[in-house]
Design goal:
Helix 1 crosses helix 5. The chain is mainly α and 108 residues long. It is globular and about 35 Å long. It contains 5 helices and no strands. The two termini are 22 Å apart. The chain has one domain.
């Protein structure tokens, strides 16, 4: 996710929340998806190739169990589970907090 540059109104117009994964990533423009390596988390219902050995993305499963579009909208957010699983983004809590704020403003 892009960092907040102080222009949340711009971000509100630009974000396609249908393309946002439970962990806050966006598959649109992803090199792995564009190359055909990954079919996309949303499209594969959390069973993308990277998570094959673990029988699906644990963050995707958790969001589905909590009936939320992405983790920032969960009543249990932020949680230790998310931080432990999303090791590639050290700013996951901040990023999903901002994403949730933009989503809620957009939906109002």
């Amino acid at each position: 996710m892009q960092r907040n540059t102080g222009n949340e109104e711009f971000l509100m117009k630009e974000i396609d929340f249908n393309a946002i994964t439970p962990c806050g990533e966006c598959c649109a423009g992803c090199k792995k998806k564009d190359s055909g390596f990954c079919e996309g988390c949303i499209e594969s219902d959390g069973f993308c190739k990277e998570w094959t050995e673990s029988k699906g993305c644990p963050v995707f499963k958790c969001a589905k169990e909590h009936d939320v579009r992405f983790c920032g909208l969960c009543s249990e957010f932020p949680c230790e589970f998310l931080v432990a699983k999303v090791t590639w983004n050290k700013n996951i809590v901040e990023d999903l907090t901002l994403l949730a704020k933009i989503y809620k403003n957009k939906m109002d």
